[in-house]
Each structure stands twice: as structure tokens, then as C-alpha cells.
């Protein structure tokens, strides 16, 4: 077993006092709010301004996710060969320009659904490249013994944006109109780009090593590294299984709450927001939980412990029984945040810097590739069996993902390994 490093607190500089990390954290927080808001506003523009049908609006969601399947691996290769900070700035500026073009094209009366599809698709491509670079640059700005804390802070910002961003975007769209609201979201991306530009650290990206390898070989090096690393492979299988069944649950969420539990639309929003609170709390406490449980052990504990609570969702009833659904959703949200924070920290610790972009991309490609399949599975099974029985299946399926990490070398580890390489763990 590899020598471990327990979290060290004596003499550490607090993360909020580390200028470069604080800039990344602040800019990413604002950028996430912009991204979450636009995720609601763009479909509103399609439905209200362009009178798009249900299927036409659903295509926007498909186009937003499709780039993860098509571009994750190339994005990893690019992130390992270029200055990651500049790549992120370029993606932010590109996303701002794309969203700003929607109201401008609308002003001249040329806004159409095909144009909106192009904007969403290209925006998705830039988001993939940004995400890969963003998750690869964090270890360059944060000391190894503060990775869990740093990733936890960034995850809390993402969860806060998921909680508040859609509500703010919807409210502004109702008051100002969807097109005008998109101008506001472009400001968020511009602020994110500006904060990235102020970061002083310009460490080597490992591009020289990556460029020596032919592109065809380098493209799959990340997948090869994961396949040879038993802990990373088990976490990849765990995350993919969890995403599959989790998205199957999410695909039934709104119709289940509206039709089966007879909740009003406003109540649906409250229940979903209440569920997101679990992730916020878990993110705020992630560093402390990791220190007490173990920064490596928490990976499998986070997946296994909340499992029974998932069954509260199919057990929910109308009225006050809706609280059962909110509790189950909060447990899933807390599990996702704790697991992701610990997993990303582990991955950043054990992966060589010159491979981190491609290893991150491999995870995104496989894990997010399960998302649309899970949604189709949930819908098809609900049509055949009904929503409650399907939610029982998806709850058990989500919990079963824990087996991949419980039955892995992680079970014998307490803290993150001190070195990197395929043999670690």
C-alpha cells in the first residue's frame, strides 16, 4: 500500500488567501451562475419567442450534452498540449460571444431555431474544452494536501449555481425577456475570463511530452492509464453506473412529482431546491469529513452510506409525504458531491501532470456518455412498469454502483497516496 498523506493543517496558507486559487474560484463561481442561468433562458427563448414544440426544445438539451461524447477525448489532448489558462479564457470569450449573438440576431428579426441549435451546440463544445482544462489546472494552483478542500470549495460554488442560477434566470427572463437576460449571462463569462487573465501562475503544462507522442496514440493514452490503474478504473465504473441510474431517476422527476404525487409546479421547484441543499452542505463539510473518515476512504463511504435513503423517493406520498422525496434527493446530492470531490482529488494526485487533461477527458467521455442512455432507460421502463416501480429499480441501481469502489483497493486505504503513477493505490 502506498504511503499516505493525512491532511496537514499546521502552517498552511488558507485557500482564500492564495491569490491565484481565489481568482479561479471567484471567476468560476460567477461563470457557473451564467451557465446555469443560460441553461434555463435558452429553452425559454425557444418556447416563448420561437414557439418551439416539446420535442424541438428537448433537442436543445441533447445538443448541450452531445459534445461530451464527441469532443471529450480531443479536448483532453488539446488541454495537455497548450496553456490551459489561455484555453479557458478563449472558451469563456467564445461562450460570451455566442450567447450575446442571440439577442443581437433577434433584434434584426433573424433568430430561428436552427440558429439557436448552432449556438447551443458550439457552446457545448466550448464547455467541454473549458471543463477539461479547468479540472486539470486546479492541482497547479493548490498544494497537494489542500486538494480536497480546494475541490470542495469549487464544487460548493457549482451546487450553489445549480440551486440559484435557474431560478434567477427564469425570473429575469419573465421580467426582462429571454433575449435580454442572455446579455446578462455573457457578463458572467466575461468576468470569468478576466479573473483567469489575472492569475499569475504559468506553470509548464507538460506539452513537450504530449507533443512527442503521435496524436492518434496520445488521444487514447488517458483511457489506457485509467485501464491500467485499478482504483481509477473502479471509480470510473462506479461513476458511470451511478450516472446511468441517477439520470434515469432524474428523467422521471418532474412527471412523478406532478402526476403521481400531485404537486403544484411551484412545489416541484421547492422540492428540487430542497434536495440540492444536501449537496451544498456536503460540499461545505467535505474537507472535514475527508479528514475524519480518510481522504481516500471517503470515496467508497460516500457511495455506500446514503444508499437506503434513495428508496424514500419511490416511497413518497402526496402532501407532507413529499418530504420523503426531498430527503432522498438530498441524500443523492450529498453523495454526488462528496464522491466527486474525493474522486477528483484522488485523480489529480495519482495522475502525471502531462496526462491529467486526457485522463479527465476519459472520465467525462465515459461517465457523461451514460447520461442520455440512462434517461432513455428510465423513460422506457416507466412506460412498461410505471414510475414507482422504476424508481425502486433506479434507487437500487444507483446504490449498487458502490460495489465497484467497496470491492477495490480503496477499501484498504485511508488517505490519498503521496505520489503519482499507475501503480499507486
Can you put this structure into words, describing what you see?
- With about 425 residues, this protein is mostly helical.
- The chain folds into two domains: about 200 residues, Growth Hormone, Chain: A, CATH 1.20.1250.20; about 210 residues, Up-down Bundle (Growth Hormone, Chain: A), CATH 1.20.1250.
- Helices cover about 80% and strands about 0% of the residues.
- It is built from 18 helices and no strands.
- Helix 1 runs antiparallel to helix 6 and helix 11 packs across helix 15.
- It is globular, with a radius of gyration of 21 Å.
Order of helices and strands: HHHHHHHHHHHHHHHHHH
Shape: globular
Distance between the termini: 7 Å
Q: Would you tell me the overall average pLDDT?
A: 83
Total helical elements? 18
The strand count comes to: 0
**Relevant CATH superfamily of the largest domain:** MFS general substrate transporter like domains
Helix content: over 70%
CATH topology name of the largest domain, in short, is Growth Hormone, Chain: A
**Whole-angstrom Rg:** 21 Å
- Uncertain stretches: 1-10, 204-210, 420-425
**What structural class do you assign from the helix and strand content?**
mainly alpha
Strand content: under 5%
CATH structural architecture of the largest domain: Up-down Bundle
CATH class division of the largest domain? Mainly Alpha
Work out the count of structural domains: 2
Question: How would you sum up the major sheet?
Answer: none
Amino acid at each position: 500500500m502506498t504511503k499516505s498523506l493525512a491532511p496537514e493543517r499546521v502552517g498552511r496558507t488558507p485557500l482564500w488567501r492564495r491569490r491565484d486559487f481565489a481568482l479561479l474560484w471567484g471567476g468560476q463561481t460567477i461563470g457557473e451562475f451564467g451557465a446555469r442561468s443560460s441553461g434555463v433562458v435558452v429553452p425559454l427563448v425557444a418556447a416563448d419567442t420561437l414557439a418551439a414544440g416539446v420535442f424541438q426544445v428537448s433537442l436543445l438539451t441533447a445538443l448541450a450534452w452531445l459534445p461530451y461524447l464527441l469532443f471529450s477525448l480531443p479536448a483532453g489532448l488539446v488541454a495537455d498540449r497548450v496553456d490551459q489558462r489561455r484555453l479557458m479564457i478563449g472558451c469563456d470569450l467564445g461562450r460570451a460571444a455566442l450567447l450575446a449573438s442571440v439577442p443581437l440576431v433577434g433584434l434584426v428579426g433573424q433568430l430561428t431555431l436552427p440558429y439557436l441549435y448552432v449556438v447551443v451546440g458550439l457552446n457545448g463544445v466550448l464547455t467541454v474544452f473549458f471543463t477539461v482544462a479547468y479540472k486539470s489546472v486546479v492541482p497547479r494552483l493548490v498544494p497537494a494536501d489542500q486538494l480536497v478542500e480546494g475541490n470542495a470549495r469549487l464544487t460548493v460554488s457549482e451546487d450553489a449555481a445549480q440551486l440559484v442560477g435557474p431560478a434567477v434566470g427564469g425570473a429575469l427572463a419573465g421580467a426582462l425577456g429571454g433575449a435580454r437576460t442572455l446579455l446578462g449571462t455573457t457578463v458572467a463569462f466575461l468576468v470569468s475570463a478576466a479573473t483567469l487573465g489575472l492569475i499569475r501562475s504559468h506553470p509548464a503544462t507538460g506539452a513537450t511530452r504530449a507533443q512527442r507522442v503521435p496524436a492518434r496514440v496520445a488521444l487514447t493514452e488517458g483511457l489506457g492509464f485509467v485501464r491500467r490503474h485499478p482504483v481509477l478504473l473502479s471509480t470510473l465504473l462506479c461513476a458511470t453506473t451511478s450516472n446511468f441510474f441517477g439520470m434515469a431517476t432524474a428523467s422521471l422527476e418532474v412527471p412523478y412529482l406532478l402526476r403521481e404525487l400531485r404537486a403544484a409546479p411551484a412545489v416541484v421547484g421547492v422540492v428540487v431546491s430542497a434536495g440540492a441543499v444536501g449537496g451544498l452542505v456536503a460540499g461545505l463539510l467535505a474537507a472535514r469529513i475527508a479528514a475524519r473518515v480518510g481522504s481516500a476512504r471517503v470515496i467508497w463511504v460516500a457511495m455506500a452510506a446514503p444508499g437506503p435513503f434513495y428508496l424514500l423517493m419511490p416511497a413518497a406520498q402526496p402532501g407532507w409525504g413529499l418530504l420523503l422525496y426531498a430527503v432522498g434527493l438530498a441524500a443523492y446530492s450529498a453523495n454526488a458531491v462528496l464522491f466527486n470531490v474525493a474522486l477528483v482529488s484522488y485523480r489529480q494526485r495519482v495522475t502525471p501532470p502531462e496526462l491529467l487533461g486526457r485522463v479527465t477527458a476519459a472520465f467525462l467521455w465515459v461517465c457523461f456518455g451514460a447520461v442520455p442512455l440512462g434517461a432513455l432507460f428510465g423513460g422506457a421502463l416507466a412506460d412498461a412498469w410505471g414510475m414507482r416501480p422504476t424508481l425502486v429499480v433506479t434507487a437500487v441501481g444507483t446504490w449498487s454502483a458502490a460495489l465497484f469502489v467497496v470491492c477495490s483497493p480503496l477499501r484498504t486505504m485511508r488517505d490519498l497516496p503521496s505520489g503519482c503513477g499507475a501503480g499507486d493505490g
